[in-house]
Amino acid sequence: MIKTKIVATVGPACAETDSLKAMLDEGVDVFRLNFSHGTVEEHEGFIGKLKSVCAGRERISALMGDLCGPKIRIGPVEPQGQMLLAGDEVTIIPGQITGDAHRFCTNYDGFAGDVKLGQRIFIDDGQIRLDVTDVNGGQVKCRVVSGGALFSHKGINLPDSNIAMSAITKRDWAYVDWAIDKGLDFLALSFVRSADEVAQLKDYLRKAGSAIKVIAKIEKPQALDCLEQIVEAGDGVLVARGDLGVEMDLAEVPLIQKRITDMCRQKGKVVIVATQMLQSMINSPVATRAEVSDVANAIMDYCDAVMLSGETAVGKYPVEAVRTITRIAKVTEAYLDEHIERHPRVSAPQQLRLTESISRSVGYIVDDIDAKVVVVWSQSGSSARLLSKSRIDVAIAALSSQQRVCRQMCLDYGVLPYCVPLPATVDEFVKVADELVVSHNLARPAERIVLVAGQPLGEPGRTNTVVVHTVGEQ
Q1: Taking Cα atoms as reference points, which of 254, 246, 255 lies closest to residue 220?
Q2: pTM value?
Q3: What distance in Å separates the CA atoms of residue 164 and residue 149, rounded to the nearest whole number?
Q4: 125-151 pLDDT, tens digit each
Q5: How sure is the predictor about 73, in pLDDT bands with cuts at 50, 70 and 90?
Q6: Are the CB atoms for 94 and 108 separated by under 8 Å?
Q7: Minimal CA–CA distance to 9: which of 261, 299, 297, 322?
Q8: I want to staple 271 with a disulfide (CB 3.0 to 4.6 A). Which of 9, 43, 160, 264 is the partner?
């Protein structure tokens, strides 16, 4: 196995049963449903296929829904591809007119209220760049700074503006309700700017009786001003390098990535690195050297997971892309296990301080006695996550009696989740662990393993027991 988790985006390129099975075999842990594309019916069809593929398989996988958020786009343009040239004057208005290279519309009614004189406007991921020269009566006049071809419905970024729209749109709320009904495991919240937006979604889920975990996507400069609060508010973070690279200086993005991954490690939160991990593999069966280095560096930055987007959704080589991530992770993790100092301290909340201390201690025990695997009873997933953040050199077999908890542990670095009935005692847990590690080839008889549990079993926050066990001995 590899410890780094792989998130793969679903799309036409991998929506058939054979492709899904092959991607699972190659190491996909979480499938992402991108709600910006496709229909509810298409997403439901995929879920049905995935359940069919997973039936009878030991490997557990999870589902993540990615909310679209307040995506601002230009309206229809005719003819397509007409050029905006540097120095040209253009006017942007709200509405649904068919535009041209001199005047076009946007789907955001509050556009003129949010942009100010002198601010920048980026179109099509920054391919076209404008400066605002006048705002009057709902019309925004701009000068073209960097030109390019204009196409209908391309995205608009406002890096200098405070956007009044909520991070969760009316369409998003409909998808939230759908995700609750379908039992998804994660929801990624787009264009987060404050911890309050994360808290709003989490509160809605809680009131609906849903245990879906919320992943905050960091893609706006405003989010970096309150990053620590956002990390603490959510269940995890996704480093969305695409929009970050549009709205900020590209040279800053690698440093922002390191800042976010380091903070998530310290706070004990899951972190995913995304966007253009293997972009060239959309059309090529082989990744570039730069992409391989990028994936390896993300793993060395202590990310829990890397995410493939277009590579698996619309690319020609979805299975090969997953296989490439697996190969890179295997080599990089072997280097980390041998050369990098392990078991960093995590700033766990008060109720998990003992668990965090035990987790770091387990890492040293594993090193000292050459244990082959760690087995933890983690009813809520917290103990497994803290062990994961300690970067133990061996696999962490995490047991829970809750199916959804096991699926959500699919995002935790180094964790192999197994759903089993709750043992009555720690002694019974030892017996269950003994049988499990042998049946899944995690350890052989006479080899040592480390067991982590709490008394009584099954109560979150009660981890207080470490047992060094020799496989096969009762």
Answers
A1: 246
A2: 0.92
A3: 29
A4: 889 999 999 999 899 999 999 999 999
A5: very high
A6: yes
A7: 322
A8: 264
